[in-house]
Amino acid sequence: MSCIVDVRARQILDSRGNPTIEVDVQLESGAVGRAAVPSGASTGVHEAVELRDGGAVYGGKAVTKAVANANGEVREAVLGLEATEQEPLDRVLIDLDGTPNKGRLGANAILGVSLAAAKAAADDEGLPLFRYLGGDDAVTLPVPMLNVINGGVHAANSIDLQEFMVVPVGADTFADALRIGAEVYHALKSVLADRGLATGVGDEGGFAPDLESSEAAIEAILEAAERAGHRERVAIALDRATSEVYADGRYRFENRDLSGAELTGFWRGLVEAYPIVSLEDGCAEDDWEGWTALTQELGERVQLVGDDVFVTNPARLREGIERGVGNSILVKVNQIGTLTETIEAVQLAQSNGYTAVMSHRSGETEDATIADLAVALGTGQIKTGAPARSDRVAKYNQLLRIEEQLGQRAAYPGWDAFPRAMRR
Questions:
Q1: Does residue 61 carry a catalytic annotation?
Q2: In the structure, how many helices (H) and strands (E) does the chain have?
């Protein structure tokens, strides 16, 4: 009764007004799963290929080719397969595409079917997705990393560093953490307004003021935390997206022109000056030498998250582990293209002492699947934007529901989610 009897894909819009793909999978029992695929602005060169049409329609961003592939070749391949057998189903999709980066059919087409099938299987068994995938042990809510100041390619402002996140490490529950994050966010709006700065928002709902430096952005957040009465309960996380500012072996941002060694010194200065618990993409995606040096210097003092360098790819992560690079992986389902490979990447990280951070993309939808995945896989951390804009809040609200479902069993790790960070 859990075999797939229909697949229907369509083109919808994401949070930036760009097209993306949504897929419905229906089972013989009548159960249905729906998944919408997100899209990134700051994308790594090693990510699975997001198939877009090109041409003039939607500025070349239409996904009708991916939709046609899902409704045609992919649909025919999965009809009759058991949705409850996720790994064999995903292997069929991977083999059907036949390329190392899912470029023929499009990772967006493949991922839409992969996730929708899992959601249909959960519906068929009458279980929430987090319970279906994670079993009875799935009780850990993630610490939210709320992107309250947007810069880089996520906002049209003067800040080169891409994400400044407030992290409610001192909360007692997820609901408490979200409240703290929201209160700091609103206090930050007041701080910026009092300085005569803009309070418009970027792609991920964070404010996008013209500030003179990364340090100024961090200090504004800490001032907001103080004003909200939460200074002792929050920490800071950063995402530099260094691949965007790396060329010819140099890092150029905020009027700086740094070598890899000099960049490590810059990060060391920030970590020593501010309560930073997590640093994402501290070096560019193929700067393995820089990553090694950064990890040797700061790996025991702060979480070093690989996004562009690992791209949720088990093979890239395995190479990073062997090289001693980073100590955490950012997990984005559309970077790799199937649920099975996503789970494999998380489990590989966890079994090697790396943390895992479930993540949205800057182009999002109301689909809240990653909230369930964070709990199912016990990542203990999630970044999904500011506590604003429905595409971001949908994930936070789903986590509130999951915490309510778990009741007394719900666990919130707080500081324990960041085992390398100093408490201050």
A1: no
A2: 14, 15
